[in-house]
Design goal:
Helix content is 36%, strand content 30%. By secondary structure, it is α/β, with parallel strands linked by helices. A hairpin with a 7-residue loop joins strand 8 and strand 9. The protein is globular and about 45 Å long. The N and C termini lie far apart (65 Å).
């Protein structure tokens, strides 16, 4: 049986497109939940977080009180289902030391819409890494997460789409300022290969979504996309 390369490529592109559309629906839902946090006038007081880290305190509030409790809005009128986890762990092979490592994922979303669209025998998931941004120096660790994405060869099926979420806690840092600083750091980064720098995309009426494209540092150096969510927490966080 001859191999039809054109059919293979077209099938993969179609699968990627369907998966991308489902991820955008998930991201739209996450922004909806952020909207509800603002509408509900929620305040996150760090003095009440106990031993929980500040980043996890914000992440937990988003996941536990909103993403998990409003899933009917994401799946309304469909037979889809989603499970939102926090601190799930997946195993990857690091290209630098050629050893297996555990990767704790901030927000781990299992979704049968993604499973159906990607068609993998393994359980696929969408991963979102979170970072607090109080000053522009904090974008260094944000960019470092992009580096980690490029160097990690995951054992289980990993979509060619990643997610990053920034809790911006400084009212003087607009989304545009943060985006431009991240792009500036990417342009001079020693190891991250970027095909497309963070660019505005329209997923929701709230202007807080961006995408970028980078290359893996192993195998055929396949490209992967990252969707970025920038949430203004400057008025709802109390130190």
């Amino acid at each position: 049986m001859s191999f039809n390369a054109t059919l293979f490529i077209n099938n993969r592109l179609n699968k990627t497109s369907i998966t991308d559309n489902r991820i955008k629906s998930i991201l739209h839902y996450i922004v909806d939940c952020y909207d509800k946090i603002i509408d509900d006038k929620i305040v996150y007081d760090y003095s009440k977080r106990g031993k929980v880290s500040q980043e996890n305190f914000l992440r937990n509030g988003l996941v536990d009180d909103y993403l998990r409790k409003n899933l009917h809005l994401l799946n309304k009128g469909t037979d889809e289902y989603s499970i939102v986890n926090k601190e799930a762990t997946e195993t990857y092979l690091n290209v630098n030391d050629n050893l297996d490592h555990d990767d704790p994922i901030d927000i781990h979303i299992v979704d049968n819409g993604l499973q159906t669209s990607w068609g993998s025998n393994s359980q696929v998931y969408y991963a979102i890494e979170c970072k607090r941004i109080k000053s522009l120096s904090d974008t260094t660790s944000y960019v470092d997460d992009i580096r980690k994405f490029s160097e990690r060869n995951y054992k289980e099926a990993r979509l060619p789409f990643e997610g990053q979420l920034a809790f911006i806690e400084n009212k003087s840092l607009t989304n545009t300022v943060v985006k431009d600083d991240i792009n500036s750091k990417l342009k001079t980064h020693a190891t991250v290969i970027t095909d497309k720098y963070l660019s505005d995309i329209k997923i929701h009426h709230v202007n807080c979504t961006y995408d970028s494209v980078h290359k893996k540092k192993f195998g055929a150096n396949e490209p992967f996309s990252i969707y970025h969510l920038f949430f203004d927490y400057s008025k709802i966080v109390i130190d």
